[in-house]
């Protein structure tokens, strides 16, 4: 029987078994086997081992994409020289994720640009890499999901995914006032996650200011009771990293030269 036809049949059967890596690269496997001459057991072991590894890589990529991480989310590159309020040891303890196993919450509090979002995204990424189901979500997007979940299938799907997470990172909580129904829906989500998952929350408002944002003292008290029951609050300080490292599109020297040229032309 023609060798190419046999290879085609093997590829077809491999696809039926969803051995996608082997189906795609079976010719390379056979060519390498002709050179290395492995035992049958070693050949099959290599095929299956590589298939599992490739599946794990694809699954990890899928979960990282599902986590909706911010662009900068690798804590290996965290700049301790800029951010004040968290030590190298504290960040190391957070990255071990023991608090996640114990259903603790983390509140990162401080002004804009002090690393709150970066740390949150990094902890979400670390959790995903260690096999947890986790998601990062800005507060405005969360409010939109809460508002639309009863009338939109996509919003309901996003809501259900959040409720099944081990860790949810909510960015910029209490930045803007919330309507009564939005605040109640947010409380219901937190209550659903309470002692079933952990939260990492970023905010520039102290918990004592949440009453004003929610415009309901009873609701704010109940919300804080659930979040703060098992919780560490980390207060970040310092100037804005983004403002100190901002860049402009226009070349300053070019702009300066153009301005001087226009000035000379005006004087002439």
Outline the structure in words.
The protein has 268 residues and is α/β, with parallel strands linked by helices. It folds into 2 domains: 3-66; 75-242, Rossmann fold (3-Layer(aba) Sandwich), CATH 3.40.50.300. It is built from 13 helices and 5 strands. The chain has helices at 3-16, 20-36, 40-66, 88-96, 98-101, 116-129, 139-148, 153-163, 180-193, 210-214, 217-228, 241-244, 252-267, and strands at residues 105-109, 134-138, 167-171, 198-203, 231-235. It has a 5-stranded parallel β-sheet. Helix 9 (180-193) links the parallel strand 3 and strand 4 (198-203). The N and C termini lie far apart (91 Å). The model is unreliable at 240-244 and 254-259 (pLDDT under 50).
Topology:
Elements: H1 3-16, H2 20-36, H3 40-66, H4 88-96, H5 98-101, E1 105-109, H6 116-129, E2 134-138, H7 139-148, H8 153-163, E3 167-171, H9 180-193, E4 198-203, H10 210-214, H11 217-228, E5 231-235, H12 241-244, H13 252-267
Parallel strand pairs: 1-4, 1-5, 2-3, 3-4
Helix pairs in contact: 1-2, 2-3, 7-8, 7-9, 9-11
- Overall domain count: 2
Summed over residues and divided by their number, the pLDDT gives a mean of 87
Order of helices and strands: HHHHHEHEHHEHEHHEHH
Poorly predicted sequence stretches spanning 5 or more consecutive residues: 240-244, 254-259
SS-based class: alpha/beta
């Amino acid at each position: 029987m023609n060798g190419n036809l046999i290879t085609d049949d093997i590829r077809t059967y491999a696809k039926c078994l969803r051995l996608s890596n082997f189906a795609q690269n079976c010719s390379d496997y056979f060519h390498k086997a002709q050179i290395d001459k492995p035992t049958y057991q070693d050949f099959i072991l290599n095929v299956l081992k590589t298939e599992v590894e490739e599946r794990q890589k694809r699954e990890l990529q899928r979960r990282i994409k599902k986590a909706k991480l911010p662009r900068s989310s690798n804590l290996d590159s965290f700049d301790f020289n800029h951010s004040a309020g968290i030590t190298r040891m504290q960040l190391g303890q957070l990255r071990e994720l023991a608090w996640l196993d114990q259903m603790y919450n983390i509140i990162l509090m401080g002004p804009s640009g002090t690393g709150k979002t970066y740390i949150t995204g990094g902890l979400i990424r670390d959790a995903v890499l260690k096999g947890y189901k986790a998601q990062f979500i800005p507060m405005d997007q969360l409010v939109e999901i809460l508002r639309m979940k009863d009338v939109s299938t996509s919003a309901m799907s996003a809501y259900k995914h959040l409720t099944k997470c081990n860790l949810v990172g909510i960015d910029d909580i209490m930045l803007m006032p919330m309507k009564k129904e939005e605040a109640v829906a947010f409380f219901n989500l937190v209550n659903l996650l309470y002692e079933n998952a952990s939260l990492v929350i970023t905010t520039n408002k102290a918990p004592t200011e949440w009453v004003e944002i929610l415009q309901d003292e009873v609701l704010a008290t109940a919300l804080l009771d659930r979040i703060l029951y098992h919780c560490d609050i980390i207060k970040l300080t310092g100037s804005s990293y983004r403002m100190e490292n901002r860049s402009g599109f226009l070349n300053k020297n070019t702009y300066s030269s153009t301005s001087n040229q226009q000035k000379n032309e005006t004087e002439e």
